[in-house]
Write a structure and sequence with these properties.
The protein is an alpha+beta fold. The chain has two domains: 16-76, 2-Layer Sandwich (Alpha-Beta Plaits), CATH 3.30.70; 93-157, Alpha-Beta Plaits. The chain has five helices and six strands, in the order H-H-E-E-H-E-H-E-E-H-E. It has helices at 31-34, 40-44, 72-76, 110-114, 144-148; strands spanning 50-52, 58-60, 93-96, 120-123, 131-134, 154-157. The strands form three sheets. It has a two-stranded antiparallel ribbon. The longest helix has 5 residues, at 40-44. It holds the Pfam family Fer4_7. [4Fe-4S] cluster 3 binds at residues 139, 142, 145, 149. Could be involved in the maturation of NapA, the catalytic subunit of the periplasmic nitrate reductase, before its export into the periplasm.
């Protein structure tokens, strides 16, 4: 029996496109080639959400806190990885899965309460508690909603949502 997981050792590292790396990455597809894994971005992160991910490369952990878009990670990086602060930080968006308390008829609005852009709203429905709705155009992908969710039902990813 061949352990296929060890084959990755001999292949060029590929970045999972759904993984949130860092905001303002100039060339996400070249991130693994250019990042030296020095850790300066993590050490300067205002909310300490940048952690070592697969292969020691920096990744964002919204289970810790949110991204405030302070730009400290980009300023600390010695490599030419980042766009200017005036650019859009990323295409990350939040999604809510089926284990959400409100989707299971239990009153909870913790995600909406923490959403500064008010991208998460709640729609009243007959015979149910108010149901969450994410306005994808308003969502910045900051992740503020992730750590406050009591059922870990919110995910922020770079995946295209509804063909966008």
């Amino acid at each position: 029996m061949v352990d296929i997981s060890k084959r990755r050792f001999f292949t060029r590292n590929q970045m999972d496109e759904s993984t949130i790396r860092l905001p303002w990455l100039a060339e996400p597809e070249r991130f693994i080639d250019l990042c030296t894994r020095c850790g300066k971005c993590a050490g300067n992160c205002e909310t300490k959400i940048i952690t070592k991910g697969d292969g020691g490369f920096p990744t964002v952990d919204f289970g810790v806190d949110e991204c405030t878009f302070c730009y400290r990670c980009a300023e600390a990086c010695p490599e030419p990885l980042f766009l200017s602060k005036e650019e859009k930080p990323w295409d990350a968006k939040a999604t809510i899965n089926g284990s959400c308390l409100a989707n299971n008829n239990v009153e909870c609005r913790s995600c909406g309460d923490t959403c500064d852009t008010m991208a998460i709203t709640f729609k009243l429905e007959i015979g149910k508690v108010a149901q969450p709705n994410i306005d994808i155009d308003e969502c910045t992908g900051c992740g503020a909603c992730v750590s406050v969710c009591p059922t870990s039902s919110i995910n922020v990813s770079n995946l295209q949502i509804n063909g966008r």
